[in-house]
């Protein structure tokens, strides 16, 4: 079938809820209204009110409750309505979900997924536009998955739900419906922790993920650059090997992310390259990122967002040395 | 010994002798709802608050303002001139009754309520700018001691803290936090209200129970039968009021404020209904039926108050159409002013992050300005936004 990213989310949930009756979907407005982005549409009708639950307005209860359900043996898939509302539940991620296995020395685990739309570009209010994968990636024990295509979205979400450890699944809402592609009706997994090479090239490696994939690919096309484009897909734990191997080949690298620059995921990509491919570098690694400022409200949010000209500019800089 | 210390916290001997453990249930609490004007327009004349005719007419005027403003905002949103908007249609009595008690030095933290800011001098233009995602609008909010909280419940600890400061200052002003029924489920709300109860912080928590938090109805939000009763668990007294009755809300909130001014926290639950969608991006037909909406529509707070004004002989002095016209004109002017709001520069993104811009931010700004100069095609990607 041809599906958008948000339809792929919905399809993955239908698939896995049908396959595994331990899967429970919970969150604000996920049941009766099918989620504010319709990601959980028709789940209530198909699987009933025990397995598709409208919770009270409490992110702490959603994430902490999901953790308890998971410890007990269920497979909760929790939705946080917008990523900007995860912070109240940060404590549950840090203090509980990510360390149940560690704390119990493997006796218990938390096989759970917290899904949430993230990123700017949809004209929303304050707190609706953040890209804080860097902050969440800093939590040991938590996996941060960020799909960028409908096909990957379904396969990654199925892997995430089946994974024995907690996954924060960040959905790039700006491209939720911006394109369709073929998504198999049947069950398939895209493995967590593996980057994808979206395009092979010889001259420069460009690393991006989630909402930044379309502008990155556009910049490469527009600049007519022979770039190798890597989609990280899992931000943490990071597949550094794919990045490093590519940089060994191209000798140049640009990292693109929407979140703030400092202490960000891009810094870590640079560090991995320094660790393992420094001697192959022919130019400093460039970073194209959001600014170290709050994401502006909607009238100016498009200035915050790395657009193709900024990405292209960085690629040209990397290539000019 | 203070009153609190005298509270005996050791268990008293309930059911002594008969061996039966007894449940304390919700039914043990009787939670009355304060009302002055009934839905049919009849009213308890003895309970009418002591307001002069002008003030009584003002209540009407402000309720109409709230309604007209929301209608116009929904309309311009549909024309693509706003990002999104949350209407307060149906909640006019709850909003105006409570906000009429505001003094200029009071602090206000709102969830769903915009007109209170107009009542304290915020220009409509700035509210339009806010919903267009232009930060500048919030400057005048702050100048009038007002804030809108988008992260639900996040403002309640702030309100507790500000009222704490007022308490330390022995001031006479009041901090009011508006919140919704949904907000009462957040951790922040529990922790803030508990703090106010424990430290006796003179805050007013004004909860508009409009029956929904997006699609989640009140029954799914909590197992409690009222929100007011929750306050008791925090050691705070509460008033539950009919939020469709502007006089009762005014009365309840003024009564509560007297208590707050004496240094005690108070919780008010105002029972009302959100007639429009949660926001312009919401589709309420997915989760509520027309009959329910019609039932509430029949109990229109503005109409209910009108019956009172008629009975009091005050209606003849009110020219409803003229009021609407005036507000429409005010809105037109505000919209024109918002449309004229100048295009800004990118430095605006970097201002106000810190008191002084750190070198790294200055560098990011300079790099970006340089890029915009060198690659004007950047502007092709900066889509045309709703005006501004
Ligand atoms: C912490 C947080 N979680 C989720 C949201 C998304 N959201 C916006 S409004 C809303 C419902 C609010 O309901 P209520 O508190 O009853 O206020 P109302 O809008 O009905 O006045 C939700 C869930 C949010 N803004 N903040």
UniProtKB/TrEMBL annotation, chain A:
Membrane-spanning ranges: none
Protein name as it appears in the record: Alpha-ketoacid dehydrogenase subunit beta
Domain of life: Archaea
Domain Transketolase-like pyrimidine-binding intervals: 3-178
Keywords: Oxidoreductase, Thiamine pyrophosphate
Coiled coil: none
Gene Ontology biological process terms from the UniProt entry: organic acid metabolic process; sulfur compound biosynthetic process
InterPro entries xrefs: THDP-binding (IPR029061), Transketo_C/PFOR_II (IPR009014), Transketolase-like_Pyr-bd (IPR005475), Transketolase_C (IPR033248)
Cofactor: thiamine diphosphate
Alphabetized GO MF terms: oxidoreductase activity
Pfam family name, one: Transket_pyr
TrEMBL record, chain B:
GO molecular function, one term: oxidoreductase activity, acting on the aldehyde or oxo group of donors, disulfide as acceptor
Domain of life where this protein originates: Archaea
Species classification: Archaea, Methanobacteriati, Methanobacteriota, Stenosarchaea group, Halobacteria
CDD domains: TPP_E1_PDC_ADC_BCADC (cd02000)
Keywords: Oxidoreductase
Protein name: 2-oxo-3-methylvalerate dehydrogenase E1 component subunit alpha
Spans annotated as Disordered: 1-25
Dehydrogenase E1 component domain span: 60-342
GO biological process, one term: sulfur compound biosynthetic process
């Amino acid at each position: 079938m041809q599906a958008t990213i948000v339809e792929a989310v919905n399809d993955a949930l239908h698939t896995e809820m049908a396959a595994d009756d331990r899967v429970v979907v919970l969150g604000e407005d996920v049941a009766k209204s099918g989620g504010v982005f319709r990601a959980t549409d028709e789940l209530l009708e198909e699987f009933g009110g025990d397995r598709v639950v409208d919770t009270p307005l409490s992110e702490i209860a959603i994430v902490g409750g999901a953790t308890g359900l998971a410890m007990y043996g269920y497979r909760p898939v929790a939705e946080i309505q917008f990523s900007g509302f995860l912070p109240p539940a940060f404590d549950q991620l840090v203090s509980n979900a990510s360390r149940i296995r560690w704390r119990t020395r493997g006796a218990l685990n938390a096989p759970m997924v917290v899904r949430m739309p993230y990123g700017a570009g949809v004209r929303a209010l304050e707190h609706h536009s953040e890209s804080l994968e860097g902050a969440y990636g800093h939590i040991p024990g938590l996996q941060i998955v960020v799909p960028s295509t409908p096909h990957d979205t379904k396969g990654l979400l199925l892997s995430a739900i089946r994974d024995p450890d907690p996954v924060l699944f960040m959905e790039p809402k700006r491209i939720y419906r911006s394109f369709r592609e073929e998504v198999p009706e049947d069950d398939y997994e895209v493995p967590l922790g593996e980057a994808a090479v979206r395009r092979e090239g010889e001259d420069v490696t460009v690393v991006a993920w989630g909402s930044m994939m379309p502008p990155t690919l556009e910049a490469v096309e527009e600049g007519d650059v022979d770039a190798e484009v890597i989609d990280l897909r899992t931000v943490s734990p990071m597949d550094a090997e794919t990045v490093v191997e590519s940089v060994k080949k191209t000798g140049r690298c640009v990292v693109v992310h929407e979140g703030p620059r400092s202490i960000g995921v891009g810094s870590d990509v640079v560090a991995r390259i320094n660790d393992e491919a420094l001697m192959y570098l022919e130019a400093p690694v460039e970073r194209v990122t959001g600014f170290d400022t709050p994401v502006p409200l909607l009238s100016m949010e498009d200035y915050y967002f790395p657009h193709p000209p900024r990405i292209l500019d960085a690629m040209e800089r990397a290539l000019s040395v | 010994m203070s009153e609190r210390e005298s509270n005996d916290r050791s268990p008293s001997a309930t059911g002594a002798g008969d061996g039966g453990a007894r449940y304390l249930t919700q039914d043990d609490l009787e939670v009355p709802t304060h009302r002055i004007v009934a839905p049919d327009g009849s009213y308890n004349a003895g309970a009418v608050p002591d307001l002069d005719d002008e003030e009584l007419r003002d209540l009407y005027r402000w309720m109409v303002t709230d309604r007209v403003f929301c209608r116009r905002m929904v309309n311009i949103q549909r024309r693509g001139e706003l990002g999104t908007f949350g209407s307060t249609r149906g909640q006019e009595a709850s909003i105006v009754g409570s906000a009429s008690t505001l003094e200029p030095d009071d602090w206000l933290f709102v969830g769903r309520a915009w007109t209170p800011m107009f009542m304290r001098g915020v220009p409509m233009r700035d509210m339009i700018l806010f919903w267009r995602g232009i930060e500048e609008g919030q400057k005048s909010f702050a100048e009038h001691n007002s804030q809108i909280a988008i992260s639900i419940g996040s403002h309640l600890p702030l309100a507790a803290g500000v009222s704490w400061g007022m308490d330390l200052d022995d001031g006479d002003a009041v901090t009011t936090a508006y919140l919704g029924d949904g907000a009462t489920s957040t951790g922040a709300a529990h922790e803030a209200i508990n703090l106010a109860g424990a430290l006796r912080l003179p805050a007013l928590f004004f909860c508009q129970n409009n029956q929904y938090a997006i699609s989640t109805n009140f029954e799914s939000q909590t197992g409690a039968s009222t929100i007011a009763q929750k306050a008791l668990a925090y050691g705070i007294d509460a008033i539950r009021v009919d939020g469709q009755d502007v006089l009762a809300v005014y009365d309840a909130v003024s009564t509560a404020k007297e208590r707050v001014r004496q240094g005690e926290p108070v919780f008010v639950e105002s029972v009302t209904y959100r007639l429009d969608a949660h926001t312009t991006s919401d589709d309420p037909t997915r989760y509520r039926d027309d009959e329910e909406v019609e039932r509430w529509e029949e109990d229109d707070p503005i109409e209910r108050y009108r019956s009172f004004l008629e009975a009091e002989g005050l209606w003849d002095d009110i020219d409803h159409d003229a009021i609407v016209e005036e507000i429409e004109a005010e809105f037109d002017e505000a919209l024109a002013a918002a449309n004229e709001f100048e295009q800004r520069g990118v430095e605006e993104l970097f201002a106000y992050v810190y008191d002084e811009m750190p070198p790294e931010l200055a560098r990011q700004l300079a790099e970006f300005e340089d890029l915009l100069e060198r690659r004007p095609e950047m502007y092709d990607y900066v889509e045309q936004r709703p005006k501004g």
